[in-house]
Amino acid sequence: MTDLLHRVYREHRARMLAALIRVLGDFELAEDALQDACAAALTTWGSAAPDDPMAWLLTTARNSAIDRLRRARVGREKLAQLGERPEAVDMGTERLVAVGDERLSLIFTCCHPALAEDARVALTLQAVAGLTAGQIAQMFLVGESTLAQRLVRAKRKIRDAGISLRVPADHLLPERLSGVLAVVYLIFTQGYTTAEEDPRREAIRLGKLIAALMPDEPEALGLVALMLLHDSRSAARFGPDGDVVLLEDQDRSRWDGVEIVEAVGVLDRALALGRPGPYQLQAAIAALHTRPETDWAAISALYGQLLMVSPSPVVALNHAVAVAMATTPDEGLALIDRITGLDRYHLWHAARADLLRRLGRKNEAAQAYRRAHELAASAADRRFLAGRLRDLD
Amino acid sequence: MQYMLLIYDCDRPEPGDPGFEEALARVNAFAEECRRRGAFVYGHPLQPESTATTVSVRDGKTLITDGPFAETHEHLGGVYVFDCRDLDEALELAALCPMAEQGSIEVRPVAPVAGLDHRPSA
């Protein structure tokens, strides 16, 4: 019987939690009530399992929430407030189950811009992905009590500041969706820079959930494609000594071909919707990099588009490097020299150095490599740049 | 749900200053929009901090001091109270407020307290 409970809980936890949060308007209360219901199930399901375990858990949780509110002094006020909300008047089982998939509104609530960024990440992983505070703390290398506090603070702000428990209104949706996708991508990149698999897997799962719940949003699909493409190369990204291996030097036999095929399929679906955006463009660039022959002209054109929709000095640098590969080092160098704001970014100096070297301007190249070496933060980057500098002579 | 909007660091033109009429018209249009949505509860600018007086009572003795409670670089220039559906609506109104273009607006929910009677005088 506990197997059944575990299975229902694992598969439907996020949906049940989302439905309870929506009806009760309180994150912590919903979590406590769901825990109460599971504890009750452990003792009562022994003899006869209910026909509809999810409905049973929701009803029991609802009753427990009402009991908890009656017991607490402030709860009575809250109970009266619940009565005023038309959708909460009937907290009957049919309604609780009929609310359907509330996970989407839960995701938007967890990623609300009024919450601190680290709280958005942690809350999404806990409430939507179902990770424990301990697991999240380990993932982000912070203390468990710090993380638990961060979660509690965020949940109380949601309740006390009246952060919406619904999918945002249409006029807010594009901006909010991009905020949601940014949180998911932040979880992914956390696992990408540290070579940790768990955050990447959770981010891809979350991305797929959002894409399934919002099938008409090409950027959600674009993000899934982008993450799958990066993930497909993860086994080849680090050398035996832990150093980052550059894309062109990676052992392509270690790329995950199945994941690449899946990513390209997802990207095709996104592009078919005819509304390109930053994630789709980045995914398209990453997809071109998986081809045996790199089409630099196509890549530089995509970076040009990306520069228009989300301009940043780093995108401009990537664009310039792609142009240099597609045309001549001169043209790339002219673009690089026009970028401002990257004076303290080692890759700007390294890219310049590389082009100067290819143009035979050895002294200037050496000077740029030295500057890049000074600014590089990681030992692996410094080793790589020192090697390039030696190769000049 | 009620929210208080605290308007910080915003210069207020005085009558006769260049731009006064225009600023007044914009602030009135903003208040009209808030009334149209049924959100407007209260709103007013404040006199500068040089006019502030701080009161505290300790051991039955009333202490009165010149100046604001906290000497900060941020100047509280006025407040609004709005009745909104949720935080999103309050944030939307804050962004519509003309003062947000120059200063910054802190949005704080009003705390519900059971039994608290704050009806205005009859």
Give a written overview of the molecule:
The complex is a heterodimer of chains A (393) and B (122). Chain A is mainly α and 393 residues long. In chain A, 72% of the residues lie in helices and 0% in strands. The radius of gyration of chain A is 25 Å and the shape is elongated. The relative contact order of chain A is 0.05. Chain B has a domain at 2-45 and 74-109: 2-Layer Sandwich (Alpha-Beta Plaits). Chain B has two helices and six strands; from the N terminus they run E-H-E-E-E-E-H-E. The longest helix of chain B has 17 residues, at 20-36. The two termini of chain B are 23 Å apart. The interface between A and B is medium-sized, with 14 and 13 residues.
List the topology elements.
The complex is a heterodimer of chains A (393) and B (122).
Chain A: H1 2-24, H2 27-44, H3 53-71, H4 73-84, H5 86-89, H6 93-98, H7 103-110, H8 117-128, H9 133-139, H10 144-160, H11 173-193, H12 197-213, H13 218-232, H14 257-272, H15 278-288, H16 296-309, H17 313-326, H18 329-338, H19 346-358, H20 362-375, H21 379-391
Chain B: E1 2-8, H1 20-36, E2 40-45, E3 53-58, E4 61-66, E5 76-83, H2 87-96, E6 104-109
Antiparallel strand pairs in B: 1-5, 1-6, 2-5, 3-4
